[in-house]
């Protein structure tokens, strides 16, 4: 698209204008940092333990943790599969993608359990 009116020429930048512009930018930056410091939380992030919805007792063994996790993944997998049966199209594909991820996670936990208690035939 052609412009009918050309852009006006830019005024020459003098050192005093450049310094004033730089000072304005620095003032704006200082105001920005003050606003960020005021509205954002402290720089010290909250520990992951404090952010958890569920906490596991320190007394629970790794074996019990893996077995319970295996059960949770199995229940979540069955739930996702059953939900996927009632959807069509994109929704069905997304639910079955979640089901697939749950099955992969369950296979990893099953493998960990198998390494802890190898089967003797």
UniProtKB/TrEMBL annotation:
> Do you know which Pfam families this protein is assigned to?
DUF6124
UniProt protein name: DUF3077 domain-containing protein
Species of origin: Pseudomonas fluorescens
């Amino acid at each position: 698209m052609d412009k009918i009116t050309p852009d006006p020429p830019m005024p020459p930048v003098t050192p005093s204008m450049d310094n004033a512009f730089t000072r304005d930018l620095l003032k704006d930056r200082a105001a920005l940092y003050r606003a960020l410091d005021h509205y954002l939380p402290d720089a010290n992030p909250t520990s992951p333990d404090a952010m958890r919805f569920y906490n596991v007792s320190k007394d629970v063994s790794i074996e019990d943790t893996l077995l319970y996790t295996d059960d949770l993944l199995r229940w979540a997998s069955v739930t996702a599969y059953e939900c996927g049966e009632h959807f069509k199209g994109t929704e069905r594909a997304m639910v079955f993608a979640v089901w697939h991820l749950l099955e992969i996670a369950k296979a990893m936990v099953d493998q960990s359990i198998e390494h802890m208690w190898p089967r003797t035939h």
